[in-house]
Amino acid sequence: MGGGGILATMKLIVKWLCSAAALLAVAHIYPGVVVTSFTSALMAAAVLGALNTVVRPVLVLLTLPVTLVTLGLFLFVINALMFWAAASLLSGLHVAGFVAALIGSVIYSVLQLVIEFVLERLFPK
Fold this sequence. Notes:
By secondary structure, the protein is mostly helical. The chain has five helices and two strands. The protein has one domain. The longest helix is centred in the N-terminal third of the chain and has 27 residues.
């Protein structure tokens, strides 16, 4: 593995750890989301990442007409569904209903934007 591969792997691990910390922050900021431990946050970050990589693009494509009509606002619903799905798959992440999933996913998305911004500065291409 070359130097670029090692940096890419490091970036992925740091992003995973930061995403888990972001989930803990969401739980701290908003009482509708509960994360029971850092291990649960790590697992939830991995599941959310997998759902957002595999399932979300399919949902975005299937709901494109609704997304266009709502001027993109339906993407918030898709993000909330991904958040809610992750909570339903894991015992260490609890979301108190769809509205909690919507609010939690918005907070998590904002934190993910900050994480991406910082990581692009730390690990330039």
